Amino acid sequence: MQTTTVDVPTGDGVADACLVRPDGAGPFPAVLLFMDAFGLRPRLTEMAETIAARGYLVLVPNLFYRSGRTPLVDLSGLGDETQRGALFQTLSPMIAALTPDAVARDTAAYLDFLAGQPDVAAGSVAVTGYCMGGTNALRAIEAHPDRIAAAAAFHAGRVVTDAPDSPHRGVGAVTGELYFGHADQDPSMTAEQIATLERSLDAAGVTYRSEVYPGARHGYTQSDTPMYDAQATERHWAALFDLLDRTFRR
Question: Which of 52, 138, 192, 197 is a Cys-bridge partner for 20, taking CB atoms 3.0 to 4.6 Å apart?
């Protein structure tokens, strides 16, 4: 496969991104991978390559491009759980800048970029996201239901809030399929919040699966953090590829 860094023009600047092309001539179904709060780094590239190995072209944009190009913060302490608080304090303004409108605009730019690639199959794409990226993957499919056929969110936090623009309130716009892989040790997505999300999905008639991964903590797929859970990560891969393969009828 071929892994490169590309620049994606957006209405607010240029987003640097990782692009992974599978072996072969294509055309390939396209997958957007939305990063967690710690940004583009080797673990995200590794995950994109795992997806690409199954025959998908994968784009992983720097969602924080408004703050600069990758790397934006020092991640040398990422494996130290005692340093997470300080990291999040630095990252919080960047996370807050990803408003629903910003996510919708950015996603349109990422989709346009993919559509312009000669080896990308025509039609809708899929999106998968992790932590805050999972929440934004839901916002993306809500904003572009005609262009995104499926979205997967893993250990996504704050999907259900009291805010008028809480992500769960927009699920009525979704026409594709959704998958949620919740961590059961996640204060940002409690059992009560999961139940609220599922009621909203049921009321809207959305096709979805919502599963809780026993013993898993928020961030369980990220092998460069203390939250990593190998068993939960393998379950996540099985669920993601089931969704992608059915979406694109491979």
Answer: 52
Contacts of 203 (CB under 8 A, 6+ apart): none
What per-residue confidence (pLDDT) applies to 250? 54
Beta strands in the chain (DSSP E): 2-10, 13-21, 30-34, 57-61, 125-130, 148-154, 177-185, 207-217
CA 87 to centroid of chain Cα atoms:
20
Q: Please, what is the angle between helix 100-115 and helix 132-143, to 10°? A: 70
Any idea what the CATH number is for the domain that residue 133 is in?
A: 3.40.50.1820
Query: How many other CB atoms are found less than 10 A from the CB of residue 135?
Result: 27
Average pLDDT of the chain to the nearest whole number: 96
Query: Among positive and negative, which fits the CA dihedral 249, 130, 113, 23?
Result: negative
Q: Are residues 2 and 20 in contact, defined by beta-carbon separation less than 8 angstroms?
A: yes
- The model's pLDDT over 57-109, given as tens digits with 9 standing for 90+, comes to 999 999 999 999 999 998 988 988 888 888 888 999 999 999 999 999 999 99
Global pTM value: 0.96
Task: List, for the chain, all residue ranges whose pLDDT scores fall below the cut of 70.
Answer: 250
Range of the domain at 203: 2-247
Active site residues: 131, 186, 218
Give the integer Cα–Cα distance in Å for 153 and 89.
23
Domains identified in the chain, total number: 1
